[in-house]
């Protein structure tokens, strides 16, 4: 696993850690079941505070990218149905919210396209 943190970048260090691990898991560079370094170990190797890495790991776990197995460690989780269900739930909540805000379907779709473009083209 290779991570590079750029302190002068606008993204917070924990977000850089989160995004890089998530991308490597999505691309297969970190295969399902890959054991991640401990929070303390990764923090030391990156020159970050342990709380920074812990925050990234919590976010990744919340996103279903990694799973913690107690004292056995933290591993890349299997993607698939759980992630798809969560995405569908988020999409449903978004659709209900933009309807309450009075946006048209075209306006809501444009907002999603813009947000996806901003995130995926980093």
Keywords:
5 helices, about 120 residues, mainly alpha, three-stranded antiparallel β-sheet, globular
Give structural notes.
This protein is mainly α and 122 residues long. 60% of the residues lie in helices and 7% in strands. The protein has 5 helices and 3 strands. It has helices spanning 13-27, 39-46, 50-62, 81-101, 105-120, and strands spanning 35-36, 66-68, 74-76. Strands 1-3-2 form a 3-stranded antiparallel β-sheet. Helix 1 (13-27) packs across helix 3. The longest helix is centred in the C-terminal third of the chain and has 21 residues, at 81-101. The two termini are 20 Å apart.
Structural classification? mainly alpha
Going across the major beta sheet, what is the strand order? 1-3-2
> In percent, how much strand structure appears in the residues?
5-15%
Query: What is the radius of gyration computed over CA atoms, rounded to a whole number of angstroms?
Result: 17 Å
Helix residue percentage = 55-70%
| Total strand segments | 3
User: Please, what is the average pLDDT?
Assistant: 89
What is the N-to-C succession of helices and strands?
A: HEHHEEHH
Q: What's the quaternary structure here?
A: single chain
Distance between the termini: 20 Å
Number of H- or I-type helical stretches:
5
Unreliable segments of 5+ consecutive residues: none
For the largest beta-sheet, the strand count, sense and barrel status come to:
3 strands, antiparallel
Q: Which overall shape is indicated by the principal axes computed on the Cα atoms? A: globular
């Amino acid at each position: 696993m290779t991570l590079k943190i750029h302190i002068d970048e606008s993204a917070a260090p924990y977000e850089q850690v989160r995004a890089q691990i998530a991308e490597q898991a999505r691309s297969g560079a970190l295969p399902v079941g890959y054991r991640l370094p401990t929070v303390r170990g990764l923090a030391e190797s990156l020159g970050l505070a342990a709380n920074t890495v812990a925050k990234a790991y919590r976010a990744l776990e919340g996103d279903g990218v990694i799973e913690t197995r107690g004292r056995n460690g933290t591993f890349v989780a299997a993607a698939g149905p759980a992630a798809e269900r969560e995405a569908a739930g988020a999409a449903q909540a978004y659709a209900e919210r933009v309807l309450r805000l009075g946006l048209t379907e075209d306006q809501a779709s444009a907002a999603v396209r813009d947000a996806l473009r901003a995130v995926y083209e980093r």
